[in-house]
Specification:
288 residues, alpha/beta, Spermidine Synthase, Chain: A, domain 2, Rossmann fold, six-stranded antiparallel sheet, 10 helices, 29% helix, 32% strand, binds S-adenosylmethionine
Length: 288
Amino acid sequence: MSLPAFIREKDGDLWLTEVESGHLRLEWKLKRVLHYERSPFQEIAIVETETFGKALVLDGVVQTTVQDEFIYNEMISHVPLAVHPRPERVLVIGGGDGGVVRECLKYPSVRSIDMVEIDERVTAACYEHLPELAGWIYDPRVRLRFEDGVAYVRDCKEQYDVVIVDSSDPFGPATALFQEEFYRNVRRVLLPGGVMTCQSESPLFYMPVLKNTYRILSELFPVTRTYWASVPTYPGGLWTFTLASLGPDPGDGGFRERIRDGETRYVTADLAEASFALPAFVRRGLAD
Ligand code: SAM
């Protein structure tokens, strides 16, 4: 198997180098490379790291590891699914590794999940090598659509109770998933009382992206709330999500009781509620 430039042998060991925003490099010692290919959209690698277990890597950026994926996937899924009083139709944009779909299936009210992932090869590789994440994608409630999420919401005639935007970082195929036209169309495909959430990046390395996402969503939705978690896999650890709603508010009653924390490894009702209490620098950054 030919190796990508971001995986190199050094002194008999395999190392993956992740370059973060140009001035930070993270190195992951690997046990083995399970899969590598160039799809029409990106370089796809699935590796087994010494410290975090198996990981999905896209264009040299570690997307998710089996060691801590549950933190991110539970936070991006359970919060909107509990803020909405009775989610039945869910749309996932991105999410090709399958982790978000796995979490959405834990809500009995959810009747259908459309997962719109631009790169079919990501899902195929994850289904083969990361069944812990992608093992549920052929559940009868799931419809897989391999197309650009931007075009899907622009042309979509269907409507949803919850939309979850589980995108990669704002470059390459994900660039347009951080722009106003996309979020405007997400609002259009939400049913009355609908709720959306998106991963809104690191407040340490991508504060301008977080601020812009929050600004756009605040202009489009009556309720916009950023919440956060610590995801060790991601550079700097701190990670944010931004929820925007056509009605339901995390401050409403019922949010806590609807969190299915008997089926989680990270999220609890207390933690979900507390996650909206932002670090002071993040709150000030959003207020600017
Ligand atoms: N869940 C992980 C995380 O913690 O961030 C990773 C997210 S998931 C792997 C990101 C997915 O978004 C990738 O599979 C990528 O192919 C997909 N994606 C990027 N741009 C897209 C677009 N315009 N439409 C649909 N999917 C897109």
